[in-house]
Amino acid sequence: MGFGEYVRWLERDERLDPLVARMRKLARRLPAGRVRNVLHGVQLGHPLHPISVHLPIGTWTAAVLLDVLPGDHRRSAHALIDLGLLAAVPAAVSGTADWSQQHSRQQRVGAVHAVANGASALLFGASSLARYRGRQAWGRGLALVGAGTLGLGGYLGGHITYYRAGGANSADPLVDLIPPGWHDLGPLDGFQDQQVTGKDVRGVPVVVTRSGQSVSALLGMCTHMGAPLAEGTLADGCIRCPWHESSFRADSGTVEEGPATAALEVLESSVEDGRVWVRAEPGPSR
Ligand code: FES
Questions:
Q1: Exposed, middle or buried, 144 (CB in 10 Å: 0-12/13-18/19+)?
Q2: 77 confidence band (pLDDT: 50, 70, 90)
């Protein structure tokens, strides 16, 4: 059985649910609005968490390497560990914000990921303390164990990101499935003014919003975790996702509110002879 099988077993392990529930309570204390958008990475266009983990992982790994290299690197290793402890705070907070808007499979693995990384922070903190007290051997030993738990935490984070697509743009492949050229979505009268209407183009979901005689069309799947945006609502020019309430500009697809970080793909739209047409690729107008 490969490691991936063990992690999938974790995904199904309901004994983790009390821990998940406690972590959810903590996550609810994170501020909403602009701060939460920053934590998700809305302004970046992709999640902040994978970027913010580089510093603690890099500094702690470098400290452990300095510990085993020939020469006296005690001060440098100690400084790197302390820097990693500082950098672990935004990494943990941004990860908690993302985790709080994921499905239970991801949250169970994410809870173990958080415990492993929390243990790493404690071990590197204890290593720093030991070094301050001049107990270098303890400091090196604790850092080495911390590097082990850090590796486990990183592996589980990789599973959430790459196996379960946590943080990926769930709608990304869809636009390439729309055949080239214009596609007829039906008569304009079939689209209610100031409402979200769901359609599909050869099986690819599309959402259309109408304002008078003009329409805007976007891919109809939320980039966060694939919710059907046809079930969303339109308010203040934005489509709100029915699952975790990300908000996308109906005309441009840009994200106004996370947890989604990737914009929705815009389809070119046109109203001709009372019918609505869309296409994915730019080209000659109808
Ligand atoms: S699926 Fe999570 S915000 Fe849309």
A1: middle
A2: very high
